[in-house]
C-alpha cells in the first residue's frame, strides 16, 4: 500500500475494498464505515472511490421512530436530529464485486 503521504492508486483501493467488504445475501457487497476509517490517510480516497462506484449508504437498521418504549432513552426518538451522522455501512449494487 502507498505511504501515508502518497494517495492510493485505483488498483490499491479496489484491492482494499475487496478485502474489507463482504458479500450480501441479496447480491453486491457491504463495507463498514469503521473499516474505511481505520485505513487512515487512505480513507478519503476509499470513500471517493465508493461514491464514484455507485455504492450507497445503507439505511440504519430501524430508525429512531421505529424504536418502541419510553425507557431511559425514550426521549431520543422524539428529539430532532441535531447532527448528521456518517452511515454505518455502504452497499454496492448487486453484481458489483460479487
Please tell me about this protein's structure:
This protein is an alpha+beta fold and 98 residues long. The chain contains three helices and four strands; from the N terminus they run H-E-E-H-H-E-E. A four-stranded antiparallel β-sheet has the order 1-2-4-3. Helix 1 packs across helix 3.
What's a quick, concise take on this entry?
The chain has 98 residues and is α+β, with helices and mostly antiparallel strands. The chain has 3 helices and 4 strands, in the order αββααββ.
Largest sheet: 4 strands, antiparallel
Low-confidence stretches: 1-5, 60-67
Backbone shape: globular
- Number of helix segments? 3
SSE succession: HEEHHEE
Record field, number of beta strands: 4
| Mean pLDDT across all amino acids | 78
> How are the strands ordered across the major sheet?
1-2-4-3
Helix/sheet category: alpha+beta
- Percent helix range: 25-40%
Distance between the termini: 23 Å
Strand content: 5-15%
Radius of gyration: 17 Å
How are the elements arranged and paired?
Blueprint: H1 10-20, E1 22-23, E2 29-32, H2 33-37, H3 43-52, E3 56-57, E4 89-91
Helix pairs in contact: 1-3
Observed structural traits:
4 strands; 11% strand; alpha+beta; disordered N terminus
Amino acid at each position: 500500500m502507498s505511504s501515508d503521504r502518497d494517495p492510493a492508486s485505483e488498483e490499491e483501493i479496489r484491492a482494499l475494498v475487496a478485502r474489507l467488504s463482504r458479500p450480501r445475501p441479496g447480491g453486491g457487497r457491504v463495507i463498514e464505515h469503521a473499516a474505511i476509517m481505520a485505513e487512515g490517510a487512505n480513507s478519503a480516497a476509499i470513500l471517493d472511490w465508493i461514491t464514484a462506484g455507485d455504492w450507497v449508504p445503507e439505511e440504519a437498521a430501524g430508525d429512531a421512530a421505529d424504536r418502541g418504549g419510553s425507557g431511559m432513552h425514550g426521549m431520543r426518538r422524539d428529539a430532532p436530529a441535531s447532527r448528521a451522522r456518517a452511515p454505518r455501512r455502504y452497499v454496492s449494487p448487486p453484481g458489483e464485486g460479487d
